[in-house]
Specification:
The structure is a single chain. By secondary structure, the protein is mostly helical. The protein is built from 18 helices and no strands. It has a single domain, classed as Growth Hormone, Chain: A (Up-down Bundle). Helix 3 runs antiparallel to helix 17.
């Protein structure tokens, strides 16, 4: 039976809290990739250092499918709320430990190995966090507001990225480059512990849960792979454009603007922060609009437009005028924000309740783990190899076309969302 109306601010805040922490951490790691590369991966080639730093970033993402399966199983069997409590704790502690981790100069080879292990734990956490919290929020939303409530889940993710970008910009502005490289980059990681404690408190006191189906003895994941594999493939394809575009446009781009356009770090972070700020109202508007006209048309239209305009917008960003760069990234923000806002409720509504966490956790995180995690490293290598500064645009074009095809192939009528209390 359907849950009670949960315009409940507790549900929304509890759902958003973990995403805010998780993506704050991943954001600050991406934004300080150049510094981390120097401190943990010594070498003479600065490009190799950045590739190594983004390689650790990618490994964390490659753990996401495993985390999606583990926490998805817990969510389907033992409740969404328990899975979300575990995921936020598994992010907060390693985030703090990254902040106090000695560098290569102190620990030698042990430093990058420990950094890698901590990123792997965080990757497990992220794998279950986003999909479980999306499901949690949409399942509790009133029937005519699922798109809007679902957009708050991704708002938490982008809000965490935005907070990370803003903190990075602030530190780059008030500290000297030497201070930033010596100790300033560690400060945002310490904040992760505080965000984690707040997230645990909100989730423990949310008072809301969709109870699992305790009568089923088979593994929800095995049921999903056997009976729902087609829709899982569609979810993976549908998630490709945000996997590639988001991490190229709002993580990798900060490094790209420094290497390719020669912008100082503070200016690159300021441009990125302003564009991410625009994402927030666009996503909420898209979620609201999806409740009125349906998510399908928004997802298909925005992904197709992303494919058409990716190269021209990258060309505009390859400019010596910061206002051109800002305008181009804001155009990307409108297109991607429209997609991101409509996506959560649409995906949740595609998969049956009894396997929803397991199926979504695996399908979504395979795409995000592989494509999202490898995109910054692939783009760095592609620019260096081809000597074409605009080559990352082709990664976005390919991903956007595949996502548009995934939406177009989903011709079944939307089922009434099943939830239970």
């Amino acid at each position: 039976m359907q849950t009670s109306a949960p315009g409940s601010r507790k549900v929304i805040l509890a759902g958003m809290a973990g995403n805010l922490l998780e993506w704050f951490d991943f954001a600050i790691y991406g934004f300080f990739a150049v510094t981390i590369g120097k401190l943990f991966f010594p070498g003479e080639d600065p490009v190799a250092q950045v590739i190594a730093a983004f390689g650790v970033f990618a490994v964390g993402f490659l753990m996401r499918p495993i985390g999606g399966m583990l926490l998805g199983h817990i969510g389907d069997r033992h409740g969404r709320d328990l899975a979300m409590m575990i995921s936020v704790a598994a992010m907060a502690i390693p985030t703090f430990l990254v902040g106090i981790l000695p560098t290569y100069a102190t620990l030698g080879l042990a430093a990058p190995i420990l950094l890698l292990l901590l990123r792997m734990i965080q990757g497990l956490s992220v794998g279950g966090e986003y999909t479980t919290s999306v499901i949690y929020m949409v399942e509790h939303a009133p029937a005519k507001r699922r798109g809007f409530v679902g957009s708050f889940a991704v708002l938490g993710s982008v809000g965490g990225m935005l907070l990370g970008s803003a903190v990075g910009a602030l530190l780059a502005d008030i500290l000297t480059p030497e201070q930033l490289e010596s100790w300033g980059w560690r400060l945002p990681f310490f904040m992760g512990l505080l965000l984690g404690v707040a997230g645990l408190y909100l989730r423990r006191h949310s008072g809301e849960s969709v109870q699992p189906n305790s009568s089923e003895t088979r593994s929800p994941l095995l049921i999903a792979l056997r009976d729902h594999w087609r829709v899982m493939l569609r979810v993976s394809g549908l998630s490709l454009v945000n996997a590639v575009a988001f991490y190229l446009l709002f993580v990798y781009l900060v490094s790209w603007l420094q290497f390719v356009d020669g912008l100082p770090p503070a200016k690159a972070l300021e441009i990125n922060t302003a564009s991410m700020l625009l994402l927030l109202p666009v996503m909420l508007a898209s979620g609201w609009l999806s409740d009125h006209i349906g998510g399908r048309i928004l997802l298909f239209g925005s992904s197709l437009l992303m494919a058409v305009f990716a190269w021209p917008l990258f060309w505009l960003m390859h400019s010596d005028q910061w206002i051109d760069i800002q305008l181009a990234q804001m155009c990307f923000a409108v297109l991607l924000g429209t997609f991101l806002g409509a996506q959560p409720a649409y995906i949740v509504n595609m998969i049956a309740k009894e396997v929803r966490c397991s199926a979504t956790g695996l399908a979504y995180n395979i795409t995000l783990g592989v494509a999202g995690g490898l995109s910054p490293m692939a783009a760095t290598w592609l620019v260096h190899r081809t000597h074409d500064d605009l080559s990352p645009a082709f990664l976005i074009i390919a991903a956007a076309f595949i996502s548009a095809l995934a939406v177009a192939s989903d011709r079944k009528p939307r089922r009434v969302l099943e939830t239970s209390s």
